[in-house]
Design brief:
By secondary structure, this protein is of the alpha+beta class. The chain has 1 helix and 3 strands.
Length: 86
């Protein structure tokens, strides 16, 4: 349970960061190197981030307890929007 909360917290803050980047630049970043903090989940594994559609969308998730991406225990980020110019 504690690891799930840590994972959800990380996903939340990174998704908020991505929304702000999109509002400022009209595209999501190519990777998370511009993110100031370590992007890891509750199991201390790096979160998986993929910029898709030429920066118009992204996928952000934790591979979950089994550490294997694209399985049923993956935890996906909710997406957020910010108005442009904020």
């Amino acid at each position: 349970m504690k690891r799930d909360r840590g994972t959800n917290r990380s996903l939340y803050w990174i998704a908020k960061f991505l929304a702000k980047e999109k509002a400022a630049t009209n595209a999501y970043p190519y990777d998370l190197t511009c993110y100031e903090y370590r992007a890891d989940d509750g199991w201390k594994n790096l979160l998986i981030y993929e910029c898709i559609d030429d920066g118009k969308d992204y996928i952000l998730f934790s591979a979950g307890k089994d550490h294997i991406p694209y399985t049923e225990d993956d935890v996906y980020a909710k997406k957020y929007d910010f108005p442009s110019g904020n």
